[in-house]
């Protein structure tokens, strides 16, 4: 029962090229093109980094290795920030054009560039309920319009051995 979750966590912790997708994902000042304006909800604390990634909205490419996606000429974008000490948290990530994409958001609390199931938080566009494995691309997808498109992503943290969900406030 726990095997799919452990496989997913292992895949999330694979080393990636830290700069892949950043130039393409970084919004410009006063962005006017297709982009997601993401409001982060449910953050556990103000430690570490946030990493927002944009993928094709299909199960084969969703959460795939960034090196493989870029080498194949597929869509991949990344934005990383240090968690701000206070206030609302908003990130902007550019999309290559209007359409449907899948987004993941990692709260890397110890800033080690890896997903640790027992420490870090994870969220997806569409805010799917998390089970023992990763959500499908369709559950974690959102449509971006020709201009900036606001969405909200709620972070989920491990609550027990078999439970993963948003923090209770």
Automatic annotation (TrEMBL):
<dbReference type="Pfam" id="PF09912">
    <property type="entry name" value="DUF2141"/>
</dbReference>
<dbReference type="InterPro" id="IPR018673">
    <property type="entry name" value="DUF2141"/>
</dbReference>
<protein>
    <recommendedName>
        <fullName>DUF2141 domain-containing protein</fullName>
    </recommendedName>
</protein>
